[in-house]
Write a structure and sequence with these properties.
- The chain is mainly alpha-helical.
- The protein has two domains: 3-81; 85-170, Winged helix-like DNA-binding domain superfamily/Winged helix DNA-binding domain (Arc Repressor Mutant, subunit A, Orthogonal Bundle), CATH 1.10.10.10.
- The chain has seven helices and no strands.
- The protein has helices at residues 3-24, 29-46, 56-83, 101-120, 123-133, 138-145, 149-170.
Length: 171
């Protein structure tokens, strides 16, 4: 049997066990599937180390490492997002290039107002906006904050509404 054929048999036999392991950790179906695939990719790369024994215990040890690393990354993303400063208005506002000093002053005034409004938002809304500005997708934000995608959508909608109304009312 070739290496790929051996892997295919092991994958077919052990996939469900590893997927259920990740589900038992409270992960969504999608996350469990992704981490299971990551686990088997690592197993494939290290398959030569596994000789003469049933591979399931080795695959389980890889799965434990994968889920621990996934949780660490999620915490690190959340921590760095919370440490991101809203003091840089360019993160949230990209005005058109000012053509003269009056336009430049008006743009600076809008940025200052936006900064003030961002700082006035409730912390949960600020977290969502910061993560979104960092480039995370809704599902990734939901993972980091441990909320549903619907909650993320709602928080971002509320933040946009509050920021838009506040700026619109005063400018």
């Amino acid at each position: 049997m070739t290496r790929d054929e051996t892997f295919a048999v092991i994958f077919r036999d052990c996939y469900g066990v590893i997927w259920r392991y990740f589900k038992s950790k409270g992960l969504s179906d999608i996350d469990a599937r992704d981490l299971t695939e990551d686990t088997f990719q690592l197993f494939y790369e290290r398959m030569d180390r596994q000789r003469g024994r049933h591979p399931l215990p080795y695959i389980r040890s890889i799965a434990r490492s994968v889920v621990v690393n996934w949780a660490r990354r999620a915490r690190a993303i959340k921590r760095s997002a919370l440490e991101t400063s809203v003091e840089d208005p360019e993160l949230f506002f990209d005005p058109a290039a000012p053509e003269d000093r009056e336009d430049e002053a008006a743009a600076e005034q809008r940025r200052a107002l936006l900064r003030q409004r961002m700082n006035a938002l409730p912390k949960d809304l600020q977290e969502c906006v910061r993560l979104r500005v960092m480039g995370l997708k809704y599902k990734e934000i939901a993972k980091v904050l441990r909320v549903s995608v619907d909650v993320v959508e709602s928080r971002l909608r509320d933040a946009k509404k509050l920021l838009g109304l506040s700026i619109g009312d005063e400018s």
